[in-house]
Amino acid sequence: MRAVIAVLPGDGIGPEVTAEALKVLAAVAKRFGHDFVTREALIGGAAIDATGTALPDATLELARSSDAVLLGAVGGPKWDDPRAKVRPEQGLLAIRKGLGLYANLRPVAVNPRLLGASTLRPEVLAGVDMIVVRELTGGIYFGEKRRDADSASDLCVYSVGEVERIVRVAARLARARKKKLTSVDKANVLETSRLWREVTTRVMKEEFADVAVSNMLVDACAMHLIRRPADFDVIVTENMFGDILTDEASMLVGSMGMLPSASLGDGTRGLYEPIHGSAPDIAGKGIANPYATILSVALMLRHSLSLTAEAEAIEKAVDDAVAGGVLPGDLASTTGAKPAGTVAAGDAVVRALAH
Q1: What is the CATH number for 201?
Q2: Is residue 134 domain-shared with residue 243, that is, in the same domain?
Q3: Domain that holds residue 212
Q4: Which residues does residue 97 pair with via DSSP β-bridges, in sequence order?
Q5: Which residues touch 300 (CB under 8 Å, ≥6 apart)?
Q6: In this structure, are 90 and 147 located in the same domain?
Q7: What are phi and psi of 264, to 5 degrees?
Q8: N or C: which terminal CB in the chain sees fewer CB atoms within 10 Å?
Q9: Catalytic one among 23, 97, 179, 186?
């Protein structure tokens, strides 16, 4: 298979972890006989420095002409002025919008080797394997924003169509797993959440009657993610709630450095990135955890290129590397193991792929 992949390393540790992910992608190409053509472009702070904008037109054009997009991370203290008119995060929001990517998938599974990396008791974490589906292009992040000397407001808006399409994405995933979907909202307070619940109930009844659906308030979900995380299978929720809950869920596996994500739309093209940020405090030190970015490549192979066996091979290789004790500093510090560097972790995955 031949595929063109747009690579956007971004800022901070982004280039470091992306390099390891590309090394793994090359190993997959060699093992399975594929031709992956990678083309690099700027986004985020690096793009601001070079072009004055967080998402240059050339980057968006490359992304639109590619089969998939792999992104490292954006942002850093250099561009952190909240009063700035151009900020790195604008590039991320703009590329999601520009590619029509409205569904963010974040799988959360606990590797047995990392049970000690979480602050939760191992018995609470046993069997955790879930996917959080976050609506990505609507809600309060994209609503009208106003500010004057005495007040500020952010408008949260959702349409029926926006809710329908994200629920369908989540329901299809649930149907292929345990046929269990949890829809998270704040319907006891917010009108947008009442719409969300009504639409979800209708779509599930009319189109996915074989999938069990339950509604849960976001504060209760936040509590139960810690109390009984293994009970969840597929969670679907709106933009801001999903942003917060997935960061919380990352602590189940001990570190954000283990969690990949996929942002999808109606076609096969998607954007794949680790859920962590640019971590400027450790950038350039060779100690960043590349596993989330490598696992994002697995999601890319599965969802954009329909290469399931190749995706599973990467996931198994990461599991093997972790099981073999190759743990970057964010994981080693909680397990007592000797920390492995960024390159060493990538090499361990490549070695595991060869067997």
Answers
A1: 3.40.50.2300
A2: yes
A3: 129-251
A4: none
A5: 5, 68, 70, 262, 270, 272
A6: no
A7: -125, 160
A8: C
A9: 186
Residue 219 a catalytic site member: yes
210 classed as catalytic = no
- Please say which residue of 209, 224, 251 terminates a domain: 251
Q: What DSSP designation does 53 have?
A: S
Residue 256 covered by a domain: no
Q: How are the residues of the chain apportioned to helix, strand and coil, as percentages rounded to the nearest 5?
A: 50, 20, 30
Among the options 49, 81, 219, 266, which is catalytic?
A: 219
> Residues 338, 312: one domain?
yes
- Has 179 been annotated as catalytic? no
Number of structural domains, the chain?
Answer: 2
Which of 129, 154, 247, 320 does the annotation list as catalytic? 247
Among candidate residues 129, 154, 233, 243, the one labeled active-site is: 243
Q: 129, 141, 178, 347: which is the annotated catalytic residue?
A: 141
- Is the residue at 107 inside a domain? no
150 catalytic, yes or no? no
What phi and psi values does residue 157 have, to the nearest 5 degrees? -130, 135
Ordered per-residue pLDDT tens for the chain, 355 residues: 999 999 999 999 999 999 999 999 999 999 999 999 999 999 999 999 999 999 999 999 999 999 999 999 999 999 988 788 899 999 998 999 899 999 999 999 988 888 877 888 989 998 999 999 999 999 999 899 999 999 999 999 999 999 999 999 999 999 999 999 999 999 999 999 999 999 999 999 999 999 999 999 999 999 999 999 999 999 999 999 999 998 898 889 888 889 999 999 999 999 999 999 999 999 999 999 999 999 999 999 999 999 999 999 999 999 999 999 999 988 887 666 789 999 999 999 999 999 8
Active site residue 347: no
